Backbone:
């Protein structure tokens, strides 16, 4: 039986998977209105408002949990959205000028 504390070659490489894309999701059901007119390429930081979801006349801000560059919206302005629905797509790669981890085989 293999030692439980020793990882196989496959397991060691599998843990190094790095995904640069992130999603910003709706906090609740409502109607989405983006904060950006020019979405593609807009830089956002953690906490930046991506837009609002309006429900029963009240506005609920949608904040990015990541620093990155917006790649596009996944919900149209004025679209009805559901809680946890992806609203925007962004990449976290190379936006801070800090080198990203290498994935050498």
Residues:
């Amino acid at each position: 039986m293999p030692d439980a504390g020793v990882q196989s070659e496959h397991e060691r490489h599998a843990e190094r998977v790095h995904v640069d894309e992130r999603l910003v999701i709706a906090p609740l059901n409502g109607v989405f209105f983006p904060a950006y007119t020019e979405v593609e390429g807009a830089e956002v930081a953690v906490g930046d408002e991506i837009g609002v979801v309006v429900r029963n006349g009240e506005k609920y801000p949608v904040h990015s949990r990541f620093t990155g560059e917006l790649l596009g919206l996944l919900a149209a302005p004025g679209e009805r959205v559901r809680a946890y629905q992806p609203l925007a797509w962004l990449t976290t790669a190379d936006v801070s000028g800090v080198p990203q981890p290498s994935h050498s085989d």
In short: The domain at 19-91 is CATH 2.40.50.100 (OB fold (Dihydrolipoamide Acetyltransferase, E2P)). Residues 47 and 64 are 5 Å apart (CA to CA). Confidence is low (pLDDT under 50) at residues 98-105.
